[in-house]
Specification:
Elements (H helix, E strand, L loop, with lengths): L1 H7 L15 E5 L5 E5 L8 E7 L10 E12 L7 E10 L13 E12 L8 E13 L6 E12 L3 E7 L4 E3 L1 E2 L3 E4 L4 E4 L11 E2 L1 E4 L15 E2 L1 H9 L2 E2 L14 E2 L1 H9 L2 E2 L2
Antiparallel strand pairs: 1-10, 1-15, 2-9, 3-8, 3-11, 3-12, 4-7, 4-9, 4-15, 5-6, 5-8, 9-14, 12-13, 16-19, 17-18
Helix pairs in contact: 2-3
Length: about 270
């Protein structure tokens, strides 16, 4: 663990948020370097996890999740060769260890194959991100606990692999736990980089987002509903489109006409 801790404080990663139009539900930046515990000797055995929560407390309804972006790192490679691995990712109700909060029950699991691991050296880490879709996944309500774990398959890299990490000062959305979790092949335990509950927490950098907004093209004024205002906009644009920017041309045939009116009326009401 001390070797990995030295790696964790050796450099500070540049934080780049995942571009998206979706609502951010949980966001931990990267202001505490990196932690790269996976290597060729242990990759087939160990898991590492982390957790937090999204809700305001008892009584909060479940929250739909859309995707998670994990901010990752490689370190200690030969400086020339990239590598590959498969990432076995599991999303849990609370910490995957079950030792912090939440049941630890599995909400979703998938394997991301052929993840490219960029070259690195013993002096310079490389940073990258992997985004994983969470189709049809929701939290269980109340505090809306959420956690995840990573295990590797088919690890092929000359150095080590792991996570960009954060202090409590880089918890931008949601709430953190000041321990991460470690599975040694037999049992789970919790760990931190030190006793300080802000600067030495083991918080892995990640963003969890809500599902992408559903397109509602008949909502011409963008107020979340198809109603009389949108009908007025469509009728005001009736006829051939004068420019390529013609939002009331819902079927994209170059004119606003009865077909577009039928599409609008068929979508009447709140956008799903």
């Amino acid at each position: 663990m001390k070797t990995f801790l030295a790696a964790a404080i050796a450099a500070v990663a540049t934080w780049v948020a995942a571009p998206s139009n979706a609502q951010v539900l949980f966001e931990t930046g990267s202001d505490n370097g990196f932690f790269t515990p996976f290597n060729a000797a242990n990759a087939a055995t160990v898991k590492y996890g982390d957790s937090g929560w999204l809700g305001d407390g008892p009584g909060s309804p479940p929250v739909a999740l859309g995707r998670i972006t994990l901010y990752l790192a490689t370190f200690g490679g030969n400086g020339l060769d990239s590598g590959t691995t498969d990432i076995e990712f599991t999303l849990n109700d609370g910490d995957p260890s079950g030792l912090v909060f939440g049941s630890g029950a599995v909400l979703y699991s998938t394997v991301v194959t052929d993840v490219k691991l960029p070259p690195s050296t013993s002096l310079e880490a490389s940073f990258f991100a992997v985004t994983i879709d969470l189709p049809g996944v929701s939290t269980t309500g109340n505090f809306n606990n959420v956690g995840w774990s990573v295990k590797l398959r088919n690890f092929n890299y000359s150095g080590s692999f792991g996570f960009q990490v954060a202090t409590c000062n880089a918890q931008y959305v949601g709430f953190y736990t000041n321990n991460a979790s470690f599975f040694n092949g037999t049992s789970w335990s919790l760990f931190a980089f030190g006793p300080n509950a802000c600067t030495q927490i083991a918080q892995f950098a990640a963003i969890i987002e809500a599902p992408q907004p559903v397109a509602c093209p008949a909502d011409l004024n963008g107020d979340g509903s198809v109603d009389g205002q949108d009908l007025g906009i469509l009728l005001g644009a009736w006829g051939p489109c004068a420019t390529s920017d013609c939002p009331a041309d819902l079927n994209l045939d170059g004119a606003v006409n009865g077909q577009d009116l039928g599409i609008l009326l068929g979508a009447w009401g709140p956008c799903a």
